[in-house]
């Protein structure tokens, strides 16, 4: 199974990738929002881990771009934003799950497995585009 890790914090991205590789996932990492959307939209991944604060493009715009081309691709948001309202915003924006930093890798891993189990379901195309960044 292939996972795209879109995270601009290099040590955290390296840690996530190393742990996922230990769990036998093929992993590719990217640190830019535009590149993350391009890769997720044009290559075959089973799941995307998406930080919302990537340089180049706001995370919700990246999510919308992914949804417009691959509505069934599971996307799990990881971000430092931890308020309940922010998590609700992420889930309502069509993320499959939302994990606040800092996190324990075992929980992230469990959420990845759960998203992959649900990943084959069909979803209606939906994306709240242009969610105000002041709400995030």
Could you walk me through the main structural features you see in this protein, from its secondary elements to its overall organization?
The protein is of the alpha/beta class and 136 residues long. It has a single domain (2-117), classed as Rossmann fold (3-Layer(aba) Sandwich). 42% of the residues lie in helices and 18% in strands. The chain has helices spanning 10-22, 33-42, 59-69, 84-92, 105-118, and strands spanning 2-6, 26-30, 47-51, 75-79, 97-100. The protein starts with a strand and ends in an 18-residue tail after the last helix.
Write a compact overview of the structure shown.
The chain has about 140 residues and is an alpha/beta fold. It has one domain: Response regulator (Rossmann fold), CATH 3.40.50.2300.
Instruction: Please outline the major beta sheet.
Output: 5 strands, parallel
Question: What is the general shape?
Answer: globular
Task: Identify the CATH homologous superfamily.
Answer: Response regulator
Radius of gyration: 13 Å
Run of helices and strands? EHEHEHEHEH
Mean pLDDT: 88
* Relative strand content: 15-25%
Helix share, percent: 40-55%
Total domain count: 1
Annotation field: number of helices: 5
List keywords for this structure.
alpha/beta; Rossmann fold; 5 helices
Which SSEs are present, and which pair or pack?
Blueprint: E1 2-6, H1 10-22, E2 26-30, H2 33-42, E3 47-51, H3 59-69, E4 75-79, H4 84-92, E5 97-100, H5 105-118
Parallel strand pairs: 1-2, 1-3, 3-4, 4-5
Helix pairs in contact: 2-3
